[in-house]
Amino acid sequence: MTDPLDLLRQAASLHQAGRLAEAEPLYAAAVAALPDHPDALHLYGVLCAQTGRNARAIALIEAAIARRDGAPAYHANIARALRAEGRLDEAAASLRRAIALQPSADALFSLGNVLRQAGDTAEATTHYRDALALRPDFADARVNLAAALEGLGDASGALGQLRAALACAPGDRGALFNLARTEQARGLACAAVAGYRRALRVAPSFEDAAGNLGAALVEGGRAVEAVPLLRRHAALAPDRPDRLLQLATALGEAGDGDGALAAFRRLMALTPGDPTPWQRTAELFEAAGRLDGLTDTLVAMARLGRRGRFHWKAAYYHLVRLCNRLLAAGRADRVAALLPPVVAAFRDADAELHAWSLFLQGSLAARAGDTATARRLFAEARPHLPFLVHVSPEDEFARRVDALAPDALSRSEDTFVLEATAEPGAGPVVIASCDDGYLRRFGPLFLASVDRFAAGPQAVHLHIVDPAPDTPGYVAALSERLRRVRLGWSSEVSPAGLDGAARTTFYTFARFLRLPRLMALYHAPLLVADIDACVLADPAAFLELLSTERPLALQYFPENLARLYDGVGGGLLVLLPEPSVIALFERVRRFLVSWTAERRLHYFLDQIALTAGTDDAVRRGTAPGILAIGTQGRLFRCGGGVFVQILAEKGLPGFDERVRTLLATLDAAPPSPDPRLDRDRFLSAIGIT
Q1: 3-class DSSP assignment, residue 435
Q2: Which of 154, 291, 385, 672 pairs as cysteine with 677 (C-beta 3.0–4.6 A)?
């Protein structure tokens, strides 16, 4: 009879030699004969993990740990299987146990990887550094520490770690690639090119390095060099749209317009739902002065949009981007040349897009001071764009504000009902407005986001238009769920005589209509936001960059050709109640009251009022200093504040159920130590990756 221990030794020898299929039956026999032998259980579990049977591996190694808890390798190896199964909290706990028993660079490195995967990037960096303290030449730890630092915004620290990794392992292709990629992200195209070339010398078939080298050459103005490289790169995977897009871009930059157009046509066939190749084609035609090609491309985009291939306004949105890019380059002459043929092409192809292109042509005329032409073009577009009644290239804003009858203002103010105030905390008072339907659909998520990220007691004030009889009870129930938020609210009934569209417009601007009243009520900084949104940071963080010199933060696009309705975004405002800010919003309020009194309220009036009010303050020399809120993908960032709007996601199947599941999870769990984990929870529930 074969000695079970001898079977175990043979299995371990085969295992170590990589002959897993031969080792497995011997391990199975050894475990059957020695069911309480911890090493047999452990080693068989390791083999199972290596062959993808993680559940079996976990069961075997758990049995080994039950018999010998003090073996650090057991805890480290079960952590690998737990991580593979997505059980990250348990994997981290097992690695902490392994480290407590015997600190090792490998276990600390693995713990850093698990924490980084779980979203706790800051703590991951601590464990990578601890691993390096034990083993300074641990190149993989330096590479992963660099990635973590880059994720935390420390690009300089990331570069330092990658250079140190290469000093430890000069031929490490991953370190070479990541260093070049980090340099490329920082705009160091020449250094990135050299780095990618080194990576390719180490690994000639490293396709990602080849693709990035081509992109870095294009960014460095060396598109002619990039073309043959990217042509070979695309030929290796002819159906990869990303590679074909790189090649098409390089061809265009290298001056081969016909080659670029051919590549974009192939890309159109590969990615029928992506407007990018159409947009790039339009840009190529415009750059070459081929305005017939530009108009044909935009008309084709419009027709595909109407068929559901793209958003129906994709052609207009790209036309705006193209015009703005040319204006930024000082080429208003080229914008003036391209708009008339586009307007003419849309006249027969799409009546609404024709109106939008007329609006851009009128906006260009207004920009040049030709108000008569602007007014004529706006009047022609108005049947399809009724919001243009609110837009004037002259000083309509000041005329309306100054002519407003006092009784109209007093009647508007009389509709405001203060239901309850919220005791202010250390940060700004968060303000949102909505109707009763939006309160019930989006209020719980909005309030939960503020409650989750507020560092301390936080005031929120909701202004609710057209409340239902049970709205007070619903607000009270919302308040009871909140840990940090102190909830105040006010209400009003929308004016009589409004149709459904006008009433919806009233809801969109109600917060600006009541902003002067709320500033006077709270005498505190305010964060004013859409309610169909999430505040993904402590509200106080949004104030970090505001000062008496710049007391107002908002989305600000003064050079946008479409600025007359889209020069200021009202989804997020942060303000200090300085006199210049108070005066600005008082005049915005009067402008909104004037249109409400006439019962003429069209979509975009909220944005038009903010843009026109800002322009008015600039003309009068009373404008507050403005901090333009930046974006990072879908996230708005203001100081340390992070904010996201819910756009098309609210119309997708399963949205409301995902939100309900998130709210139940938040009710049951305290805030995560790393706010990024909670931020990811909110974004995932919304449907934003």
Answers
A1: strand
A2: 672
Closest to 586 measured CA to CA, from 624, 558, 556: 624
CA 139 to each of CA 101, 127, 156, 173: distance values in angstroms, whole numbers, following the listed order:
24, 14, 18, 11
Tokens 């009934």 map to which residue? 493
Q: Which 3-state string (H, E, C) describes 32-50?
A: HHCCCCHHHHHHHHHHHHH
Per CATH, which fold does 211-396 belong to? 1.25.40
- C-beta atoms surrounding 514 within 10 Å: 25
Give the span between the Cα atoms of 89 and 168, in whole angstroms. 32
DSSP structural state of residue 469: T
Tokens of 603: 């979509």
For 255-270, write each residue's pLDDT tens digit.
999 999 999 999 999 9
Q: Which of 157-161, 347-351, 376-380, 471-475 has the lowest mean pLDDT?
A: 157-161
CATH of span 410-686:
3.90.550
- Taking CA atoms, 298 is separated from 319, 488, 494, 666, in Å, by 8, 49, 41, 46
Residue 442 class from Cβ within 10 Å (0-12 exposed, 13-18 middle, 19+ buried)? buried
Domain 4-199 in CATH 1.25.40.10? The answer is: yes
**94 CB contacts (<8 Å, ≥6 apart)?**
75, 76, 78, 79, 82
Kindly write down the DSSP assignment for every residue of 579-626, as one continuous string.
HHHHHHHHHHHHHHHHHHHTT---TTHHHHHHHHHHHHHHHHT-PPPE
- Token pair for 3: 């000695």
How far is 454 from 487, CA to CA, in rounded Å? 13
SS3 for 486-522 is: EEEEEEECCCCCCCHHHHHHHHHHHHHHCHHHHHHHH
Cβ atoms 128, 151 nearer than 8 A: no
* pLDDT tens per residue, range 323-360: 999 999 999 999 999 999 999 999 999 999 999 999 99
Q: Are 624 and 587 in contact (CB under 8 A)?
A: no
Place of tokens 């005791």: 423
Q: Within the chain, which residue ranges are assigned CATH 1.25.40.10?
A: 4-199, 211-396
Q: Measured between alpha carbons, how far is 424 from 428 in angstroms, rounded to an integer? A: 8
Compute how many other C-beta atoms are within 10 angstroms of the C-beta atom of residue 117: 15
Contact at 8 Å (CB) between 412 and 586?
no
In SS3 terms, 258-283 reads as HHHHHHHHHHHHHCCCCCHHHHHHHH
Q: What CA–CA distances, in Å, run from 28 to 8, 12, 42?
A: 9, 12, 12
Specify the pLDDT at position 395: 85
In whole angstroms, give the CA distance from residue 627 to residue 545: 8
Distance CA 265, CA 253 (A): 17
CA distances in angstroms from 653 to 312, 521, 608, 649, listed in the order given: 21, 40, 32, 9
Angle at 25 between CA 19 and CA 28, to 5 degrees: 125
Nearest-CA neighbor of 234 among 246, 224, 221? 246
Cross-strand bridge partners of residue 630: 637
* C-alpha span between 103 and 579 (Å, rounded): 60
Q: How is residue 390 written in tokens? A: 């609110």
**Domain limits, CATH 3.90.550, in the chain:** 410-686
